[in-house]
Amino acid sequence: MWATGIAIPLRREVIHMCEMFIVVFAALSFLVALINLIIVLIDKIKR
Question: Rounded to whole angstroms, how far apart are CA atoms 34 and 11?
Fold first, then answer.
């Protein structure tokens, strides 16, 4: 019982960390895609 009392809040923390990581990863990939799009547009304008 003592072990489960510790494990449950810890599991919630891990899930929260995973959610944060997914959000950060999604934001980063979106930024990279946006930067690539801008580079392609600039390249087309220069030509």
Answer: 34
CA distance 36 to 24: 18
Residue that is written with structure tokens 């934001």 in the block: 27
pTM for this prediction: 0.59
Residue 37's alpha-carbon distances to 1, 25, 27, in angstroms, are 54, 18, 15
For the chain, what's the residue count?
A: 47
The pLDDT of 29-37, averaged and rounded, is 97
Tell me how far apart the alpha carbons of residues 22 and 10 are, in angstroms, rounded to a whole number: 18
What are the structural domain ranges in the chain? 20-47
